[in-house]
């Protein structure tokens, strides 16, 4: 059974559909990328799975249970790294983890898993680089031992070394059985990490397949679906 199952999902804001009749599934331990130009509906999908938005029609299920609202999504094991990261920039790395886990002991146990963060545990988050902040945001999301991880714009604006660290971190989470659905503008980075990818345009699914299959169609996908330069 799929860990995440979207069936004929139509979602949007103020009653206006942004995503239309989307079918999508993600298994435990699987990483799926959502690709497409700006305005395609990628973030709307994540917000609906995370309970931020309610479906206009269709269904969102995690572990066979309907997602209705943020609290219900969290109770079902969904953890969401939103664009902008949602960190407390005036607090330290350690304090951010403590707030997320509601436990000093848990924060102490988590930090050694991330040597880069442990080395700057008492530094204010506002002084960290973009890559370090994104690493912390994902570490915070994983600190609650989720079943399913949502990540919006995972590598945007980050240096290659930071991107490599993040890809490794997410793959390790999937290897532990966490399902992952992420949005990424850099297509090659996305296909390097993902097991499968789905391409949205104007709120509709226009292509999907394994990363290997889509990598073979990269030029065609770029010409047909993406309003962006070819990835680095």
Report on the structure:
- The chain has 232 residues and is of the alpha/beta class.
- It has a domain at 4-77 and 146-225: P-loop containing nucleotide triphosphate hydrolases (Rossmann fold, 3-Layer(aba) Sandwich).
- The protein contains ten helices and ten strands.
- The chain has helices at 42-49, 70-75, 93-101, 104-110, 115-118, 130-143, 160-175, 187-193, 211-216, 218-225, and strands spanning 4-13, 16-26, 31-35, 57-62, 65-66, 78-81, 148-151, 179-183, 196-201, 204-210.
- Strands 6-7-8-3-9-10 form a six-stranded mixed beta sheet, sandwiched between helices.
- Strand 7, helix 7 (160-175) and strand 8 (179-183) form a beta-alpha-beta unit.
- Helix 3 (93-101) crosses helix 4 (104-110).
- The protein is globular and about 45 Å long.
- The model is unreliable at 228-232 (pLDDT under 50).
């Amino acid at each position: 059974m799929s860990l995440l199952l979207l069936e004929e999902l139509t979602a949007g804001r103020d009653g206006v559909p942004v995503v239309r009749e989307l079918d999508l599934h993600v298994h435990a331990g699987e990483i799926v990328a959502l690709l497409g130009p700006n305005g395609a509906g990628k973030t709307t999908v994540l917000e609906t799975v995370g309970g931020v938005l309610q479906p206009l029609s269709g269904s969102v299920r995690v572990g066979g249970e309907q997602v209705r609202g943020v609290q219900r999504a969290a109770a079902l094991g969904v953890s969401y790294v939103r664009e902008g990261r949602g960190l407390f920039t005036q607090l330290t790395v350690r304090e951010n983890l403590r707030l997320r886990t509601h436990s000093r002991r848990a924060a102490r146990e988590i930090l050694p898993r991330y040597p880069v963060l442990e080395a700057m545990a008492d530094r204010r988050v506002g002084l960290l680089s973009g890559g370090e902040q994104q690493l912390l945001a994902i570490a915070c999301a994983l600190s609650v031992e989720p079943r399913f991880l949502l990540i919006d714009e995972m590598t945007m604006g980050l240096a290659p070394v930071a991107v490599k660290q993040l890809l490794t971190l997410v793959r390790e989470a999937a290897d532990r059985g966490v399902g992952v659905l992420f949005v990424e503008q850099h297509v090659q980075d996305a296909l390097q990490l993902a097991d499968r990818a789905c391409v949205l345009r104007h709120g509709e699914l226009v292509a999907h397949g394994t990363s290997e299959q889509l990598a073979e169609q990269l030029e065609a996908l770029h010409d047909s679906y993406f309003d962006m330069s070819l990835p680095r």
